[in-house]
Amino acid sequence: MGRDQLSDDLATAQALRDAVGDNIDLMVDFNQGMDMAEALCRCHAIDNLGLLWIEEPVIYDDFAGYAKLASELKTPLQIGENFYGPRDMNKALEAKACDLVMPDFMRIGGVTGWMQAAGLAAAANIPMSTHLYPEVAAHVMRVTRTAHLLGWQDWAEAILEEPYQVVEGELQIPDRPGLGLDWDEAAVAHYQID
Question: Which fold has domain 1-77?
Answer without folding.
Answer: TIM Barrel (3.20.20)
